[in-house]
Specification:
19% strand; alpha/beta; seven-stranded parallel beta sheet; Rossmann fold; two-stranded parallel ribbon; 253 residues
């Protein structure tokens, strides 16, 4: 009688080994965490951002292959960045841009107009100028939000903008296939951007969410980064929107 020895558990190698990930808005928050996780999975990373000091700090900490400092909302600068990239890349993660909140009576219409255009036109620009650099099966990953599902005073323009992004994602996925396009719709994420928006109300918001969310904690930048890397790795995913909010949408309003 022979006894079979248990087989050793399979070891998982780095899932992005030999690949190149470009992170637009990669100097802080979700972008920086995505770059860090991509590096841990074996990828080379190219970081971009507007703040040169912060960008250089992130690049040094993460061992970035290269950096570029420019405003991603400047279409000419975005086009020039992709034109300068040498060779083929595998994935682009875009976290640049932020929400615009203002009640109607206090809304600056010029700022509001820019906010409505910001994310859709950035997505279109990255798809137009970045997709030709991406290998077939690689992906563009964009950031959106869940605010459109919970109408409230002061968030109307942001809600309208985020409602449009899933439809744009699906359309781009058809138009630039076989490059894949996916959207991450995040609720509250504990990042420097959230801190700047909430100011002295930040800790109260954290406490509120810890008590209310089904996961019992706030969503962190690394949670979103893990999802972003999964979207890069899983080549069956395209044209879809993926929520990450700790169950916030399940709560009664």
């Amino acid at each position: 009688m022979t006894t079979e020895m248990p087989s050793a558990p399979a070891t998982r190698g780095p899932e992005l080994r030999g690949q190149t990930v470009v992170v637009i808005g990669g100097s802080a928050g979700i972008g920086r965490e995505t770059a860090r996780r991509a590096r841990a999975e074996g990828a080379d990373v190219v970081l971009t951002g507007r703040n040169l000091d912060r960008l250089n700090d992130a690049a040094a900490a993460l061992g970035a292959r290269s950096t570029a400092s420019f405003d991603a909302e400047d279409t000419a600068a975005l086009e020039a960045f992709f034109a300068r990239l040498e060779g083929t890349i595998d994935h682009v993660m875009v976290t640049a841009g932020g929400p615009y909140y203002a009640p109607l009576a206090e809304m600056d219409f010029d700022d509001g107009r820019r906010a409505l255009q910001q994310h859709p036109m950035l997505m279109a620009g990255v798809a137009r100028y970045g997709a030709p650099k991406v290998r077939p099966g690689g992906t563009l990953v964009f950031m959106g939000g869940t605010g459109a599902r919970h109408p409230a005073a002061g968030v109307g323009l942001s809600s309208a903008m985020t409602a449009a992004l899933p439809a744009l994602t699906a359309s781009l996925a058809r138009e630039i296939a076989p490059v894949r396009v996916n959207l991450i719709a995040a609720g509250f994420v504990d990042t420097p951007l959230s801190a700047s928006l909430l100011g002295d109300r930040l800790e109260a918001r954290r406490d509120e969410l810890r008590a209310a969310l089904p996961i019992g904690r706030v969503v962190e930048a690394d949670d979103v980064a893990a999802l972003a890397v999964h979207l890069m790795v899983n080549t069956a995913l395209t044209g879809a929107t993926y929520d990450i909010d700790g169950g916030q949408q399940l709560l009664a309003r």
